[in-house]
Design goal:
The chain is built from no helices and 9 strands. By secondary structure, the protein is mainly beta. It has one domain: Archaeosine Trna-guanine Transglycosylase, Chain: A, domain 4. Strands 1-2-5-8 form a 4-stranded antiparallel sheet, with no helix packed on it. A hairpin with a 2-residue loop joins strand 6 and strand 7. It is globular. It starts with a strand and ends in a 6-residue tail after the last strand.
């Protein structure tokens, strides 16, 4: 089994797609965690590891990188259409 998603830190609620994932395709991490994409996820983009409620912090690298602007189901593409940066929001 070749891993096609990357979990950067155990605290992360998102993973990184190492290859493009089509909706319905399952990505697998090196530790065997599997996530089925519910939307197309481009390579190098984030995919939700868990259901993320609107207003929840997005954790990547074990750190807060953004906040969700709407509910994001497990397996959904996590990008600018459903998150915002706390840094740039002023």
């Amino acid at each position: 089994m070749t891993a096609n998603i990357l979990i950067l830190h155990p605290r992360d609620n998102v993973a990184v797609a190492l290859t493009a994932l089509a909706a319905g395709e399952t990505g697998t991490a090196h530790d065997g965690e599997a996530i089925t994409a519910v939307a197309d996820v481009p390579a190098s983009h984030k995919i939700a590891r868990v259901d993320i409620a609107a207003g929840t912090e997005i954790i990547k690298y074990g750190e807060i990188v953004a906040v969700s602007t709407r509910d994001i189901p497990r397996g959904d593409w996590v990008h600018t259409h459903n998150l915002e940066s706390k840094v740039w929001k002023r």
